[in-house]
Amino acid sequence: MLSGFKAFILRGNVIDLAVAVVIGAAFTAVVTAIVGSVFNPLIGALFNAESLAKALPVVIPNTGGEDAVIYFGAVIAALIQFLLIAIVVYFAIVAPMNYANKLAEARKPKVVEPEAGPTETELLLQIRDLLAKQNS
After folding, report:
1. Are 76 and 55 in contact (CB under 8 A)?
2. Domain range holding 39?
3. What are the residues whose beta carbons fall under 8 Å from the beta carbon of 36, sequence distance 6 or more?
4. CATH (domain of 105)
5. Quick check: pTM over 0.85?
6. Which residue ranges traverse the bilayer (predicted)?
7. Which of 93, 75, 78, 73 is nearest to 31 (CA)?
8. For residue 7, what are the contacts with CB-CB under 8 A and spacing of at least 6?
9. Which of 69, 79, 99, 103 is 20–30 Å from 42 (CA)?
10. How far apart are CA 24 and CA 32, in angstroms?
11. Do 54 and 44 meet the contact criterion of CB atoms below 8 Å apart?
12. HSE on the CB side for 30, CA within 13 Å?
């Protein structure tokens, strides 16, 4: 049982996944800082709000107490953050990997498969024809 666990842990893809999670967490912090410090104030200024998280408020009246407020700006901020992460991941990781794979594929020698010989049935037909030719 322990040898199976050891084999699982030492697989390359498990280690790659662990590295990806750590890098992803660090990268998320960078994108969150950019969105919170650059994009939120810029877009918040367009909507006369302190930040994007407080922009586009929709007030829902509550007769029993405080009114509820829905901030659609926070949703927009999350969408911007998602798009930024997706753009950076694509252009920093996916596109270079696709290009590297394309180059590696181009460098591989082209394997030319030999033409397939006649099938067993075709050989038997040729033998039959030769035997018939010899007997006549």
Report:
1. yes
2. 2-135
3. 51, 77
4. 1.10.1200.120
5. no
6. 12-39, 68-93
7. 78
8. none
9. 69
10. 12
11. yes
12. 10
